[in-house]
Specification:
Elements: H1 25-55, H2 57-65, H3 69-94, H4 98-128, H5 143-179, H6 188-212
Helix pairs in contact: 1-5, 1-6, 2-5, 3-4, 3-6, 4-5, 5-6
Length: 215
């Protein structure tokens, strides 16, 4: 009995991320578009800060004097170092050095956690002093000082949330690298995660002088 090849059912399509031959430029373009929307969001918040900073310059200056400049500076150094490690992790994957990339990725996540811990200590110190939304010390502050701390909690809180998301996403990238799904031929996801991480770090570079170096 003869078989007609034209009547045979087509083989089902299969997709395996590990077998993806090339990184698609569209992936990076999609990440840049996402970061652009994030830039618009943070731009609006920074604009709001500028309006109230112009309205209450003296109150903002006095409030910033109570910020812990040492911890803020340490956190800045921590994030800058984490960005360096992330860039090196991507370069290591592209060069086929998966184990080195895993160590660098682990270091990036660890520094992100260190930043959140330090920021939590700062928040805890303020809350213990009653300087928090609804806290007893807030009612004794001037309107501009209340606005300063309201913006402080809002803006640093949003930034901390973005960093926590970055740590979680990087955890998935670490798992993917360990399983061999992220390689020198397929590294777009890790590279995009790096772009997001760098963006979050840049946002902090602007937050740092606004709350710690106000003059």
């Amino acid at each position: 009995m003869s078989t007609d090849p034209s009547s045979a059912e087509p083989a089902p399509l299969r997709f395996d991320a590990a077998e993806e031959p090339v990184d698609r430029p569209g992936k990076k373009l999609g990440m840049w578009l996402f970061l652009f929307t994030e830039l618009l969001f943070f731009g609006g918040v920074f604009l709001l800060y500028s309006v109230f900073r112009f309205r209450y310059p003296g109150d903002f200056h006095r409030s910033a004097q109570g910020e812990n400049l040492l911890l803020g500076s340490v956190n800045t150094a921590v994030l800058l170092t984490s960005s360096l490690l992330m860039a090196l992790a991507v370069a290591a994957v592209r060069g086929g050095r998966a184990r080195r990339s895993l160590r660098l990725q682990a270091g990036t996540m660890a520094l992100g956690v260190v930043f959140l811990v330090i920021k939590g200590l700062e928040w805890g110190a303020k809350i213990s002093e009653g300087i928090s939304p609804g806290g007893p010390a807030i009612s004794r502050l001037n309107e501009g000082e209340v606005m300063f701390f309201g913006l402080y909690y809002t803006m640093t809180g949003i930034h901390a949330l973005h960093l926590a998301i970055g740590i979680a996403v990087e955890g998935f990238m670490f798992h993917g690298t360990r399983r061999g799904l992220i390689t020198g031929e397929n590294y777009a996801r890790l590279e995009n995660t790096g772009l997001y991480w760098h963006f979050v770090d840049i946002v902090w570079i602007y937050l740092y002088p606004l709350f710690y170096l106000v003059t």
